[in-house]
Input
Amino acid sequence: MSELTLLLIRLAFLAVLWFFVIAAVGVIRTDLFGSRTAAAAPARKAPKPVKPPAKPKKGEPRQMVVTGGPLQGTTITLSETPITIGRANDATLVVTDDYASSRHARLFPQDGQWIVEDLGSTNGTYLDRSKVTRPTPVPLGVPIRIGKTVIELRK
Amino acid sequence: MSAPTVSTPGAEAVPLPAKRRVAQLVMLAFAVLIVMAAYAAVGMGIDQKIPSGMLTYGLGLGGFMLAAYLVLARFAPWADPLILPLVTLINGLGLVMIYRLEVGAGGRGGASATTQLLWTAVGVVVFTVTLIVLRDHRALQRLTYTAGAAGLLLLVSPLLPVLGQEINGARIWIGLAGFTLQPAELAKLALVIFFAGYLVAKRDVLALAGRRLLFIDLPRARDLGPILITWGLSLGVLILQKDLGSSLLIFGTFIAMLYIATQRTSWVLIGILLFVGGAILAGMVFSHVQDRFTVYLNPEDPALYDRVGGSAQLLEGLFGMSQGGILGTGLGQGHPGLIPLAFSDFIFAAIGEELGLTGLMALLMVYGLLVERGLRTSIAARDPFSKLLAGGLSFLLAWQVFIIVGGVTNLIPLTGLVTPFMSQGGSALLANWILIALLVRMSDAARKPPPQAIQDEGLTQVFQR
Output
């Protein structure tokens, strides 16, 4: 076995090792931004909602982001299923907060909008500054306050 | 744009997060292939032919991982696609290195790739069993104090008269029916579960009460209890078991979790002060801690080199890595056998010699990505307990790699810890596979789309999980 072969084996192995690392980073990248075809297509053909909401929207909200409180940073990808928020263990977003009720509020999609509904909580749910008394549509980027937790919808 | 019909646009417009099973399988196969290539390279380097064991070891590892993958696809389909492949690569490279050291030493010297492969198999079995049994990780929250008690018991068990055994100057083993186990490895997991459960319950009082002094919020004196108790615990480990590594690991992890829970820098500062104080105190009182410091400051001293338990191991490791240089000597072509215990504590130095800086950096990147996936799970988790547990477990892994790699490269004083998934040793491998199972379970819960409502309206809702 010549020196050259061994050198080539050595370099090839290191290259393959790094290729693995790069491939792993690639998987993470797709995970974060979605694969190009899957992410770009719905963004372009997102239909306008039937009833125009208070603010003009550029598209559907795609995720719910916790922007304040102990769970800050949590992101939930929205699908067509409703999201419950509360202290109960089976809530979609479980908040441990003395100011939250076990079943505090619910977010659900209707005709392309997301509606927030207070489920009879003790301390109330606030959309921006106003208390939510009946199911109210949630515009993009407007904070919903539940106890110490603040969430908002984002594209 | 034409007038759209009334429908539920959410159904098509919002893509569900993908399960990424194919990506996972491809990466897994890639990792196993790299490991087999490494076996082949070792054989070529040592005696110019592909070793007969390559297929056995490679297919063995591949088989275990395929089994783990199938269980994962069945019981945690939404789990992070990268965790398992990354662990496979690290574990596999560790196996190759141990095999290489065993062949290089002619079967003497304590390195045994077969034993390690066997323990890997046990690790994978434990991984799958954990995934199958533990369907909802939040069940662990109910075991907060049980886990704490179990952790303490495991920590002190080596001190018990009949059970405990002292090997290589550290009393951290227990003998059970012919096997020796390091219970501290499992104790770490139990303690992280305890810390997570405890901090979820107590974090408000730890985060909110207190006075502000200059730039930092100081906690109240009576809230210092938990941190002082953990400090005492880690000092106890240090004094009674002469185990520097575990002591540093437990205390550091607790500080990190306290910081994650309260987001207050003052806890980190208090922790560092307590640790430095404790270390100086221990350095003055106990000779074995002092020895580590002298070796750390002056490994080149010939007198220290010749002493038993002196700097020989550290210095040989440094020599080996310098021999490797940027590109390494090539697998099977270096002399990592010269480093004492190269198959356990110093496997990182052995890899550094044969794969060079390039290989070490790739390896550290793989560890880094693994920790990143764990922290990502923590950010995405939907309840505070999983957030803390995932954050704590990821930090435990990162901290462990830092302590041992820092020790081997003489960045910090050397403390005996295993390199996760690489060093020879069953208990550590077992504990780390359980850790990975917990991370996988939590990433599954975090990435799963929200539960489906069976009924549509009404206050009482039934959810299908």
Summary: Chain B touches chain A through 66 residues (CB under 8 Å). Residues 249 and 380 of chain B are 25 Å apart (CA to CA). Residues 140-233+245-280 of chain B form one domain. Residues 347-380 of chain B form the longest helix (34 residues).
